[in-house]
Amino acid sequence: MLNTLSGRFLILTTVFVMLAEVLIFVPSIARFREDYLLNRLERAQIASLALEADDMLEAKLEAELLKTAGVFNVVLRRDEMRQLMLSSPIPAAIADTYDLRMAGPFVLIRDAVQRLFTPENQIVRVIGEPVRDAGLLIEVTMETAPLRMAMIDYGLRVLLLSAVISIFTASLLFFAVRIFLVRPIKGVVGYMQRYAQAPEDARGIIQPKAGVTELREAEEALLMLQTDLTQALKQRERLAQLGGAVAKVSHDLRNILTSAQLFTDRIEMSEDPLVRRMAPKLVNSITRAVSLCESTLAFGRAEEPAPILTMVRLYEVADDVVASERLAIAEACVQICNEIPEDLMVRADPEQIFRVIMNLVRNARQALIASNNPGVITVSASEQGEEWCIEISDTGPGLPPKAQENLFTPFEGGVRKGGSGLGLAISSELVRGHGGDLSLKSTGPAGTTFEIRLPRGDGTF
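RE: above sequence
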């Protein structure tokens, strides 16, 4: 606990409050001593009134009055004449004299501290002004032991109260610091740890919401850092994949262009009637080369932004995909069905989840058309525990084994002839950005099913 921020705040607050109480304690104990002495003077004056009522008092009554007042004798001065009102034997010589009429705060504090650190019982003279203008001054002699014990008792009560106040104040500050400072800091740390574990998961990107200005600035700086780093990591990953594919692309491109060059040379040097049949091959070769180059360049410079996660009605997104794909179906043998419940809401980026579903539906449509057999493409979704499950299935011929091995690898996972496999790779990346997973659930002669799983949690701490 001593190494935690809130624990250190608790200890420091207790120390500082106790220090403040000590600074208050010294003037308080001086004030208590002054009140104690003034009380003795007042009680002595009241005792002396008995003598004024009766000039002759019995020794026993006089001693009792002095004991009640807590003094040995009482002297009053009226009209410049000192008068010994009450007296009793003094057990020792007078050690010091305190005149409360002219004593300032520093003198009172000095005398109080001195008395606390003087354990011997001494006899002192105390001079003050009588109450209700009963004379010019009143003077008493008294012991210091009762005074010192009263001061110690008062000081202990003050220190105990100070300790209770400091502990209570420190506890309030402890909980306040945990609520308003430690908890937001832990939230920021949690986002940093989650982001470090899965930089491609958009749920690990912090959403600034702190009320404290400094923490808000830290969260905004972290958001900017995470956003820039995510873009840089994606670009780096793409460039790495592009670099690995350059050798294969160069080899294929060289073969294609070599074939095109041979056809071109034949056209230029010969008037053979076969030229008309060679011309389409030349065009196809050049088209393939251009398409491959465009796909490679597009993948290398693409920068997918972090998804903006909102609650989306998935049926409407899938319906837009179905409407777009139906326009591309030339034959009526392919049907696309949207079986997603109309009230199903998922947390996703509507534009990115549209692209994912579009890529999967388009691949299924192209596979069905290439097979020259009637087929059905179905888009469905459901809630399963802590996840949303989206399935795109078709009744096509299934994926070949080679395609299944490198299904989500750029330039290697192409399903159809001439395909680059970028569609599935990009779709998988977009789904990972949502904190989810895109996988091939099943494939075979009865059809193929791709499954998208999105977490229902929002990734907050």
